[in-house]
Amino acid sequence: MKILVLNGVNLDMLGKREAGIYGSESLEDLYKRIDSLELDAEIEYFQSNSEEGIIKKIHSHAQEGYYCGVFNFGAHTHTNVAIRDAILAVDFPFYEVHISNVYSREEFRHVSFFSDIAIGCIVGFGFDGYEFALQKILRSKNGS
Length: 144
Known about the structure:
Structural class: alpha/beta
Pfam families: DHquinase_II (PF01220)
Protein name: 3-dehydroquinate dehydratase
InterPro entries: DHquinase_II, DHquinase_II_sf
Pathway: Metabolic intermediate biosynthesis; chorismate biosynthesis; chorismate from D-erythrose 4-phosphate and phosphoenolpyruvate: step 3/7
């Protein structure tokens, strides 16, 4: 089983930006943490600050054979219809993850263009949210 962990805009700045909100760990630390879980799946990581890069990666769903995705679009969550349309165009199942609790932040962050098409949403659990999503994907693949 192949799972895509996709991170969007500014998430390459984890560990350098707003530590009170996002913590002190980097995106590379997240990847190392996921790799240490020794999941029975092939995990592919992708990060882009570009709408085009994210859309191209989503469009590769069928060619790459992704079973499911764990997506954190960053600020694109609240603004991006084009990425939403790309997901719908290729019928890419995914979990939406946010490191911070977006509902305890500015009101504009309370709106997601993706929550209604996601399998589920995990918000405010830091890097644990990625692990929760991956574990759920593996459990659902195994019928539980």
